[in-house]
């Protein structure tokens, strides 16, 4: 490893002296460490700068968003000591910057570890689904009056037609000779091309509106309180930027409804659990329902299918391109991930009428 966490610690104004650090979490992009000092527990992260090309701008977003939410919390009538666990408290470097660049050019950030809470790669019950969706909806609601426009950390992040074009280009190039393994997956994704521009068309027509959204609402990006079961803190703020509320709700359906992990090999285990969809929908509407217009609300079930297919095409693109984007831990890992997304999309299609009916009734 071309870095030493103990040295990185010295770059930040932290409480106490370095004790230990260990890799943490299951994220696909950054390197995350849980760090103990004699004074506190922190999360230390090395930002993947081949993906986030302008990390200073990213950290500017991060600080603006955390500050805005902390100000909202401070304005609440009954602020209790636990409120400091509801947003990420960014640590400053000795240069008074919210990041530190080490001797090897690695870009680091650090924030306080939120204790007595954890993330779930697979949700255990519908109460957790409700709590997580409520927290992500509240996050959008809190950011509705954020002054100015955030920096776009990755252009076209949820532009599904552009993601589809990337997949087609990767298939044409077939850089690693893997195209021969993926005909059924590619056919499935190609067959649904007409649906990929639906949300952007609605945006262009003025039926749905851009807001500040999280854009990576994988369910393991919200901390669930161990005691209360509430979604206590929204994390992983790298992609918070202008977007549609549907991107966030869609990714919750993608990651919160299946009883199996994103890279499950036994596809019989993958599928959309209707009760989890219902809990996500009710949880999201409990906090986001008041700012969505009727057409925006109507499109929520569709967003679950769209984002599942969009991430599926990104996994397939990465498989065809030689696994250059998402971290992989085994051969064909990205293809396995793509297959679960397709299975989940099939399951969503099979239950789509019931999803729509439920949404219309709320
Ligand atoms: P990645 O971009 O790699 O997904 P995340 O910011 O999501 O990185 O962090 C990875 C994991 O670390 C999270 O899923 C969560 O389990 C844990 N984590 C991150 N920040 C905190 C925090 N402030 N307190 C407690 N756990 C955290
Ligand atoms: C990545 O960083 P992480 O693991 O929370 C990715 C998301 C994908 C997700 C798929 C910046 O999220 O867009 O939906 O993997 N983040 C980025 O699991 O590309
Ligand atoms: Mg994450």
Task: Provide a descriptive summary of the structure in words.
This protein is an alpha+beta fold. It folds into 2 domains: 5-115, Phosphorylase Kinase, domain 1, CATH 3.30.200.20; 126-361, Aminoglycoside phosphotransferase (APH), C-terminal lobe (Aminoglycoside 3'-phosphotransferase, Chain: A, domain 2, Alpha-Beta Complex), CATH 3.90.1200.10. It is 43% helix and 12% strand. It has 12 helices and 10 strands. The strands form 3 sheets. The protein has a 5-stranded antiparallel β-sheet, covered by helices on one side. It has a 3-stranded antiparallel β-sheet with strand order 6-8-9. Strands 7-10 form a two-stranded antiparallel sheet. Strand 1 and strand 2 form a beta hairpin. Helix 3 (126-142) runs antiparallel to helix 7, helix 7 packs antiparallel against helix 8 and helix 7 crosses helix 10 (300-321). The radius of gyration is 20 Å and the shape is globular. The model has no long low-confidence stretch (mean pLDDT 96).
Brief write-up:
With 362 residues, the protein is of the alpha+beta class. It folds into two domains: 5-115, 2-Layer Sandwich (Phosphorylase Kinase, domain 1), CATH 3.30.200; 126-361, Aminoglycoside 3'-phosphotransferase, Chain: A, domain 2 (Alpha-Beta Complex), CATH 3.90.1200.10.
Q: How many strand units?
A: 10
Q: Which stretches are poorly predicted, pLDDT < 50 over at least 5 residues? A: none
CATH topological fold name of the largest domain: Aminoglycoside 3'-phosphotransferase, Chain: A, domain 2
Bound molecules: adenosine-5'-diphosphate, 2-acetamido-2-deoxy-1-O-phosphono-alpha-D-glucopyranose, magnesium ion
CATH class of the largest domain: Alpha Beta
Strand order of the largest sheet: 1-2-3-5-4
Distance between the termini: 52 Å
What's the order of the H and E elements?
Answer: HEEEHEEEHHHHEEEEHHHHHH
Q: What number of structural domains do the residues give?
A: 2
């Amino acid at each position: 490893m071309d870095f030493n966490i103990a040295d990185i610690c010295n770059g930040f104004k932290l409480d106490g002296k370095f004790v230990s650090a260990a890799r943490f979490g299951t994220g696909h992009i950054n390197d995350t460490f849980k760090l103990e000092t004699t004074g506190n527990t922190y999360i230390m992260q090395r930002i993947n700068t081949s993906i986030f090309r302008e990390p200073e701008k990213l950290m500017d977003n991060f600080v603006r968003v955390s500050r805005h939410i902390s100000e909202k919390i401070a304005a609440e009538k009954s602020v209790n000591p636990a409120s400091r666990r509801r947003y990420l408290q960014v640590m400053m470097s000795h240069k008074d910057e919210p990041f530190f660049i080490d001797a090897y050019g690695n870009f680091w950030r650090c924030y306080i570890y939120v204790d007595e809470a954890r993330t779930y790669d697979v949700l255990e019950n519908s109460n957790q689904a409700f709590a997580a969706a409520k927290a992500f909806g509240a996050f959008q609601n809190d950011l509705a009056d954020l002054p100015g426009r955030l920096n776009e950390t990755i252009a076209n992040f949820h532009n599904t037609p552009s993601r589809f074009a990337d997949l087609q280009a990767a298939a044409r190039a077939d850089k690693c000779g893997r195209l021969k393994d993926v005909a059924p997956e590619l056919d499935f994704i190609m067959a649904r091309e007409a649906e990929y521009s639906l949300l952007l068309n609605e945006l262009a027509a003025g039926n749905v509106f851009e807001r500040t959204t999280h854009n990576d609402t994988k369910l393991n990006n919200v901390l669930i309180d161990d005691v209360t079961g509430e979604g206590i803190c929204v994390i992983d703020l790298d992609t918070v930027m202008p977007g549609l509320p549907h991107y966030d709700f869609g990714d919750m359906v993608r990651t919160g409804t299946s009883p199996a992990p994103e890279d499950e090999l036994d596809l019989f285990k993958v599928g959309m659990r209707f009760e989890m969809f219902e809990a996500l929908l009710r949880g999201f509407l409990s906090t986001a329902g008041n700012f969505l217009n009727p057409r925006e609300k109507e499109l929520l079930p569709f967003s679950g299918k769209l984002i599942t297919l969009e991430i599926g095409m990104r996994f397939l693109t990465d498989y065809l391109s030689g696994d250059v984007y998402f971290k992989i831990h085994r051969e064909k890992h990205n293809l396995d991930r793509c297959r679960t997304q397709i299975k989940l999309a099939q399951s969503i299609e099979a239950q789509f009428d019931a999803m729509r009916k439920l949404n219309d009734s709320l």
